[in-house]
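in:
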C-alpha cells in the first residue's frame, strides 16, 4: 500500500491495531500508535477517521488513568462524529465513554443522544455497536452514574 501511495486508509489500520493493543492490555503502545494516526491524518488533511481515533485515545487514556485526557478525547470524538453526521461513530463514542465510566455529558443529554442515535439506525443495523448502545441506554435509564 505504501508503494502505491495509498495512505488515506492508514488511520483506519492504525486504529484497528490500537484497538487490538488495548484488548491485549497494552494501552501505552496503543496511545502511541493513535498519536501517529492523528499525525498522519493531519499531514494528509484527510480526517474521516478522526472520531474513531479520538474515541480510542479516550479509551487508552482511561486505561492509563488519565481521566482529563479521556474526557477531552471523548468530547472530541462526539463532536467530530456529530459534525460529520457519522451517527454510528457518535453512538460508539458515547457508548464507550459510558461503559468506561467517563462520559463527558450530563445524564439527560447522554440519554437524549443515545435515544436519537438508536432511533435513527433502528431496523437498519443489528450489530454489536447497537447492542452496546442499548445496554448503555438501559444503564442510564436505570440511574447508574456516568462517572466512575
Amino acid at each position: 500500500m505504501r508503494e502505491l501511495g495509498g495512505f488515506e486508509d492508514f488511520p483506519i489500520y492504525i486504529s484497528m491495531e490500537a484497538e487490538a493493543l488495548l484488548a491485549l492490555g497494552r494501552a501505552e503502545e496503543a496511545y502511541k500508535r493513535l498519536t501517529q494516526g492523528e499525525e498522519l491524518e493531519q499531514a494528509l488533511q484527510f480526517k474521516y477517521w478522526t472520531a474513531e481515533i479520538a474515541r480510542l485515545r479516550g479509551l487508552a487514556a482511561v486505561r492509563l488513568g488519565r481521566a482529563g485526557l479521556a474526557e477531552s478525547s471523548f468530547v472530541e470524538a462526539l463532536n467530530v462524529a456529530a459534525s460529520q453526521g457519522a451517527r454510528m461513530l457518535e453512538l460508539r463514542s458515547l457508548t464507550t465513554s459510558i461503559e468506561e465510566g467517563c462520559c463527558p455529558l450530563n445524564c439527560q443529554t447522554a440519554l437524549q443522544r443515545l435515544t436519537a442515535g438508536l432511533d435513527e439506525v433502528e431496523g437498519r443495523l443489528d450489530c454489536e455497536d447497537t447492542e452496546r448502545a442499548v445496554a448503555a441506554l438501559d444503564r442510564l435509564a436505570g440511574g447508574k452514574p456516568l462517572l466512575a
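note: DSSP finds seven helices and no strands in the chain.
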